Amino acid sequence: MVKTFVRISRSSNKNREAGFEVGTVLSTNPIKIQVSSKKTLTREFLFLSPFCVLTKVKVGSSYYTIWRGLKKGDKVLLLRSSGGQFYYVMQRQEGIL
């Protein structure tokens, strides 16, 4: 499904309209995501969804991980804003689990 979204967005985004892209996490602190061989995004251009941030809940005296944070090498699905100035990191490519 992700590949379908990316293919549709690439075919319709010749003028840098909003669309989907796939990137690779290069580092997490500071966060850097590579979307092409020439473009690496840094924190000031990224908004992270809750699915990309370490989330734990406390049940009784134990903590359980709901979502792990991003790790180096993760493939992520990004939603590019119109003009390509900002990117919303939606989730890891393999899903939220």
Structural description of this entry:
With 97 residues, the protein is mostly beta strands. The chain is 11% helix and 44% strand. It has one helix spanning 2-12, and strands at 19-28, 31-34, 40-42, 46-48, 55-59, 62-67, 75-80, 87-92.
Provide the fold topology.
Elements (H helix, E strand, L loop, with lengths): L1 H11 L6 E10 L2 E4 L5 E3 L3 E3 L6 E5 L2 E6 L7 E6 L6 E6 L5
Parallel strand pairs: 4-8
Antiparallel strand pairs: 1-2, 1-7, 2-3, 5-6, 7-8
Determine the oligomeric state from the structure: single chain
Q: Categorize the overall geometry.
A: elongated
Strands in their spatial order, largest beta sheet: 3-2-1-7-8-4
Gyration radius, rounded: 15 Å
Gap from first CA to last CA: 17 Å
Instruction: List segments where confidence is low: pLDDT < 50 over at least 5 consecutive residues.
Output: none
Q: What's the overall average pLDDT, rounded?
A: 84
Q: Tell me about the biggest sheet?
A: 6 strands, mixed
Order of helices and strands: HEEEEEEEE
The count of DSSP E runs of length 2 or more, i.e. the number of strands, is: 8
Sheet-strand content, in percent, reads: 35-45%
Write a brief caption for the model:
This protein has one helix at about 1-10; strands at about 20-30, 30-35, 40, 45-50, 55-60, 60-65, 75-80, 85-90. The radius of gyration is 15 Å and the shape is elongated.
Keywords:
97 residues, six-stranded mixed beta sheet, elongated
